[in-house]
Amino acid sequence: MTSAVRADSQSSHRSPAGGSPPSRRGRGLTLRRRESLAGVLFTLPWILSLIAFTAYPVLASVFYSFTEYSVVQPPEWVGLANYERMFTNDPQFWIAVQNSAYYALISVPLGLVMSLVLALILNFGAKGIGFYRTLFYLPVLAPPVVATIVFMLMFSPDSGLVNTILRGVGLPTPGWLDDPSWSKPTLIILSLWALGASTLVFLAGLKEVPMSLLEAAAIDGAGPVRRFWHVTIPLLSPVILFNLVMGVINSFQVFTSAFIAGGTAGEPLDSTLMYVVLIYRSAFRYFAMGYASALSVILFLAVLVVTLLIFWSSKVWVFYAGRDQ
Amino acid sequence: MNGPPSRAVAVGRHVILIAVSLLFVLPFYWMLTSALKDDTQILSSPITWWPDPIRWENIPQVLNYPGFPFLRMLWNSVFYSGMVTIGTVISSSLVAYGFAKLRFPGRNVLFIATVATLMIPPLIIFIPTYVLFKVMGLIGSYAPLIIPQFLGSAFFIFLLRQFFMTIPNELSDAARVDGAGEFRIFWQIMLPLVKPALAVVAVFTWLGTWHDFFGPLIYLTEPDSYPLSLGLFAFQAQRTTEWALMMGASALVTLPLIVLFAFTQRYFLRGIALTGIKG
Question: Is ipTM > 0.90 here?
Answer without folding.
Answer: no
